[in-house]
């Protein structure tokens, strides 16, 4: 079984970690991109059971507003600590202006969602490869609401076309309910919408529509 630390280790992901437990070059080392705490519970659990040495990587410039990003960041850290693995935070990548400009012209589903997932997977591959991880994956593969086949295809294409970390594909959706139950038991913050400002608007659009109807003369 992997030899993981007993608490989450927060470091700046732009620098190569000095802690030896964050530098498991080769072997079973796996960088797991995590989108939030609840979605990470079962991927971390299953990958540890398989013998991978997992390091979580919180990199989500799509999450808006900043207060929401910080709430999910905290939950991701709590999850990592509870499961005994280190976590890295890519906070320098969060920039609302940069993200909105990048998604401009493809700001409706499925293009927006496909870009949102594949761009983070590409970033995970680049970081994993640059920091000596043998494998990489993402907790996005857990969610029933994400473009699962697109995420899988992107990860496999990165491994096939480039030299570097190998993509580990698993259909974590099979653990959907267990992940919900365990995240609730752990007291993790469970977000009410996907992440970006567009999905927040879609989440509350019906409430706005009711307000407009009620105020119509």
Low-confidence stretches: 1-24
User: Number of domains in the coordinates?
Assistant: 1
Overall 3D geometry? Answer: globular
Q: Into which percent range does the helicity of residues fall?
A: 40-55%
Can you give a write-up of this model?
This protein is α/β, with parallel strands linked by helices. It has a single domain (20-191), classed as HUPs (Rossmann fold, 3-Layer(aba) Sandwich), CATH 3.40.50. It is built from eight helices and five strands; from the N terminus they run E-H-E-H-E-H-H-E-H-E-H-H-H. The protein has helices at residues 37-49, 66-83, 96-103, 111-130, 148-161, 176-185, 197-203, 205-214, and strands at residues 29-34, 53-58, 87-89, 135-138, 166-167. The chain has a five-stranded parallel sheet with strand order 3-2-1-4-5, sandwiched between helices. Helix 5 links the parallel strand 4 (135-138) and strand 5 (166-167). The N and C termini lie far apart (67 Å). Residues 1-24 have low confidence and may be disordered.
Fold topology:
Layout: E1 29-34, H1 37-49, E2 53-58, H2 66-83, E3 87-89, H3 96-103, H4 111-130, E4 135-138, H5 148-161, E5 166-167, H6 176-185, H7 197-203, H8 205-214
Parallel strand pairs: 1-2, 1-4, 2-3, 4-5
In short:
The chain is of the alpha/beta class and 217 residues long. It has helices at residues 37-49, 66-83, 96-103, 111-130, 148-161, 176-185, 197-203, 205-214, and strands spanning 29-34, 53-58, 87-89, 135-138, 166-167.
């Amino acid at each position: 079984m992997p030899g993981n630390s007993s608490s989450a280790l927060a470091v700046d992901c732009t620098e190569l970690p000095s802690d030896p437990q964050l530098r498991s070059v080769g072997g079973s080392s796996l960088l797991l991109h995590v989108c939030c705490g609840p979605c990470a519970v079962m991927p971390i659990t299953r990958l540890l059971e398989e013998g991978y040495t997992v390091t979580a990587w919180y990199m989500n410039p799509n999450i808006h507003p900043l207060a929401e990003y910080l709430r999910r960041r905290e939950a991701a850290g709590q999850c990592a600590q509870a499961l005994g693995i280190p976590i890295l935070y890519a906070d320098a990548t969060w920039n609302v202006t940069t993200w909105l400009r990048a998604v401009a012209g493809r700001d409706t589903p499925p293009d927006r969602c496909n870009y949102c997932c594949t761009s983070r997977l590409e970033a995970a591959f680049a970081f994993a490869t640059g920091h000596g991880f043998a494998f990489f994956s993402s907790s996005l593969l857990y969610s029933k609401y994400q473009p699962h086949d697109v995420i899988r295809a992107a990860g496999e294409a990165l491994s096939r076309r480039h030299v570097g970390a190998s993509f580990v594909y698993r259909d974590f959706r099979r653990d959907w309910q267990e992940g919900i139950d365990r995240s609730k038991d752990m007291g993790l913050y469970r977000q009410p919408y996907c992440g970006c400002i567009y999905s927040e608007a879609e989440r509350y659009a019906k409430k706005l529509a009711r307000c407009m109807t009620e105020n119509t003369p």
